[in-house]
Amino acid sequence: MNDDKLINQLETYSNAVIGFVVLQAIAYSFSFGTNEFFNCTVKTARFLADGLAVHFVMVTALTCYTTVAIGRLLLRLSQDNVEIVKRIYFAKCVAVALFTCLPFVITVAYGVLDYPGKYDCKQTKHVS
Fold first, then answer.
1. pTM of this prediction?
2. Phi and psi dihedrals of 49, rounded to 5?
3. Which terminal Cβ of the chain has fewer Cβ within 10 Å, N or C?
4. pLDDT tens digits for 3-27?
């Protein structure tokens, strides 16, 4: 496999990983905000919110690690645009951190922390 084809493939992998993380964060946040049953389940199920918060931290760490690793591989393959590649992959890590921060904060604020009326949603029923 020549270097140009490998560079394109690595870039595609990087974009796919980041796209997945962004879509996961948006879908989770949307579901939490619009689906009363899902919202209530996250807030009231024992240890679910804690597990989801840990999940979002792990996803952030692993995605940033993967992005940095792919960026380093690209730097080894192409020495032409070192500064541009470094900045792009730094920006990708920032984007991952920002997008995964939203569902993490939502989960911690509404699911992990206690506040008055948190368990009032138990009366809601799942309607299909």
1. 0.82
2. -65, -40
3. C
4. 889 889 999 999 999 999 999 999 9
How many Cα atoms sit within 13 Å of 66 on the Cβ side?
18
Whether residue 73 contacts residue 7, with contact meaning beta carbons closer than 8 Å, is answered with: no
Alpha helices in 35-81 (DSSP H): 36-44, 48-77
Characterise 113 by phi-psi region: left (phi > 0), alpha (psi -120 to 50), beta (else): beta
Note the pLDDT tens digit of each residue in 54-94: 999 999 999 999 999 999 998 888 777 888 889 999 999 99
Cα 67 from Cα 82, distance rounded (Å): 15
Neighbours of 88 (CB within 10 A): 15
Dist CA 60 CA 38 (whole Å): 23
Two tokens, residue 55: 């999940």
Which amino acid, one-letter code, is at 98?
A: L
